[in-house]
Design a protein that fits this description.
Elements lengths: L12 E4 L5 H12 L3 E6 L3 H13 L3 E6 L5 H15 L4 E4 L15 H25 L5 E5 L3 H4 L6 H21 L5 E7 L6 H4 L5 H5 L11 H12 L10 E4 L4
Parallel strand pairs: 1-2, 1-4, 2-3, 4-5, 5-6, 6-7
This protein binds NADPH dihydro-nicotinamide-adenine-dinucleotide phosphate.
Keywords: Oxidoreductase
GO molecular function, one term: oxidoreductase activity
Family: Belongs to the short-chain dehydrogenases/reductases (SDR) family.
C-alpha cells in the first residue's frame, strides 16, 4: 500500500528556488513534465527563468516565473502568496538556492562573506520551509538541496559554504521529525561535482573536469541526474522516506 497525497482533487504545486539555471532549472522542467504546476523562482536572470517556463509549457506543462531574493523575508512571503494566487497553495518545495564565492582558506574569509553565504543558503531554506509549512497538508513534501561539502567541510575552498550545507542537513533532520506525524516529508539531496555554472562563481569554471579522475564514477554529474533524485523524494513513490539524504557525488 502506498500512502499518497490526500488532496487527490488538488493539483500538485511546486516552488523550486533558484530555478533559472543549473540543478534548479533541470528540476523545474522535470516536475513540469510530471504534472506539477511549477513556480520557477529566480533572482537576477529573468530571461533564463522565462526560458525555463517556455520549455515547461512547450512540453505541455504549466509554470510561472517569480523573481524573489529568497534570503529576504518579505520576498519569500510574496513568493508564496503570489504562487498561491496564480497556481494554488504550495504542496511541494525544493530549496535549491545555494551560492559560493572564490576558493579561499577560512583565515582569509570576511564576516560579510560568511554572513552572505549563510543568509542565502540557510536563512532562505528556513524562510521557505516556514512559509510552506503554513499551508502544506498530509502528502506534501520538501526537498533541500544540500551538498557533499556538508560532510567534507570543503577545506581550502569554501568552509563557509560547507558550514551552510551542514546547517541545512540539521534543519532537514529536525523539520522532518517535527512534521512526520502530520504526513509531511522532508528530505535532502547532497550533490557533488555537477556540471553547472556555480563553479565559475568559485573561481574555477573547470573544477569538475579537474577532479573527474578522483571521482569513483570517473566523471562529473549532470543537473538532470540530481533532478531525478529530487523528483523521486518529492513523489509518493518515496512515501516512507523522511529525514533522509541521497548522496549524488559519483561515489564520493
Ligand atoms: P547555479 O549557480 O547554477 O544556480 C544558482 C541558482 O540560484 C540561480 O538560478 C540563481 O538565480 C539562484 N539564486 C542565487 N541566489 C539567489 C537568491 N538570493 N534568491 C533566489 N535565487 C537565487 O547553482 P547549481 O545549480 O550548481 O546549484 C544548485 C544547488 O545545488 C545549490 O544549493 C548548490 O549549493 C547545490 N550543489 C551544487 C553542486 C554542483 O556541483 N553544482 C554540488 C553540490 C551542491 P539567478 O541566476 O536568477 O540569479
Amino acid at each position: 500500500m502506498t500512502h499518497t497525497n490526500n488532496n487527490k482533487n488538488q493539483y500538485k504545486v511546486a516552488i523550486v528556488t533558484g530555478a533559472s539555471r543549473g540543478i534548479g532549472a533541470a528540476t523545474a522542467k522535470l516536475l513540469g513534465a510530471q504534472g506539477y504546476r511549477v513556480c520557477v523562482n529566480y533572482h537576477k536572470q529573468l530571461e533564463a527563468a522565462k526560458q525555463v517556463v517556455t520549455d515547461i509549457e512547450s512540453a505541455g506543462g504549466q509554470a510561472i516565473a517569480i523573481q524573489a531574493d529568497v534570503s529576504k523575508e518579505a520576498d519569500v512571503v510574496r513568493l508564496f502568496a503570489e504562487t498561491k494566487l496564480k497556481l494554488g497553495a504550495v504542496s511541494h518545495l525544493v530549496n535549491n538556492v545555494g551560492i559560493l564565492f572564490t576558493q579561499s582558506r577560512l583565515v582569509d574569509l570576511s564576516l560579510a562573506r560568511f554572513n552572505t553565504v549563510m543568509n542565502t543558503n540557510v536563512s532562505s531554506c528556513f524562510l521557505c520551509c516556514r512559509e510552506a509549512v503554513k499551508t502544506m497538508q498530509a502528502g506534501s513534501a520538501i526537498v533541500n538541496v544540500s551538498s557533499g561539502a556538508s560532510k567534507s567541510g570543503a577545506p581550502n575552498e569554501y568552509v563557509d559554504y560547507a558550514a551552510s550545507k551542514g546547517a541545512m542537513d540539521s534543519l532537514t533532520k529536525g523539520l522532518s521529525l517535527e512534521l512526520a506525524a502530520d504526513g509531511i516529508r522532508v528530505n535532502a539531496v547532497r550533490p557533488g561535482f555537477i556540471h553547472t555554472q556555480m563553479h565559475a562563481d568559485g573561481g574555477e569554471p573547470n573544477r569538475v573536469e579537474r577532479l573527474a579522475s578522483q571521482i569513483p564514477l570517473q566523471r562529473g554529474g549532470a543537473p538532470e541526474e540530481v533532478a531525478e533524485a529530487i523528483a523521486w523524494l518529492l513523489s509518493d513513490a518515496a512515501s516512507y522516506v523522511t529525514g533522509s539524504f541521497i548522496d549524488l557525488a559519483g561515489g564520493r
